[in-house]
Amino acid sequence: MLGSGERSPMYRALRDSSCSRCGGIIREGDLFTRKAEPATGLPLIRRCRVCVPFRAGGGLLSALLDPDDGGEEMPTVTAADMKEKALSRLGPALAAGRRRRGDTTG
Q1: Between these two residues, 18 and 63, which has the higher pLDDT value?
Q2: Could you give the 3-state DSSP secondary structure of residue 31?
Q3: Looking at the domain assignment, is residue 19 inside a domain?
Q4: With contact defined as beta carbons under 8 Å apart, do 36 and 42 qualify?
Q5: CB within 10 Å: which end of the chain, N or C, has fewer?
């Protein structure tokens, strides 16, 4: 919700960029809004919280944007685990391909 009472989509910066209006830095992870460019109508003009004050809605949106996930830690996955998982999924298809080609070495 913008300070003017209008609703507007919010975006989270994936990298540092600048505000199109004031030139201020929008840091990675910060929220910002966009405005349509007059020439094309595409939402290309980035606007920081200083230029266009806004507040996040709440509920599901706040839960999704909140960096604190309630203390749950994501499991760490190693390259070996990923390779094992991929091979377990691809194993039957690879075996069928070998059988079709007559390859019994794999």
Answers
A1: 18
A2: strand
A3: yes
A4: yes
A5: C
Amino acid letter at 43? Answer: P
Q: Single out the residue of 77, 101, 79, 80 nearest to residue 93, CA to CA.
A: 101
- State how far the alpha carbon of 70 is from the alpha carbons of 57, 66, 74, 75, in Å: 19, 10, 11, 15
* Same domain, residue pair 50 and 85: no
In a domain, 68, yes or no: no
Q: Write the single-letter amino acid at 48.
A: C
pLDDT per residue as tens digits for the range 21-74: 898 999 988 888 888 877 887 778 888 888 888 776 655 556 666 665 555 566
- Three-state SS for 15-33 is CCEECCCCCCEECCCCEEE
- Where residue 99 falls among pLDDT bands split at 50, 70, 90? confident
The domain total for the chain is: 2
- Which range of residues forms the domain containing residue 3? 1-55
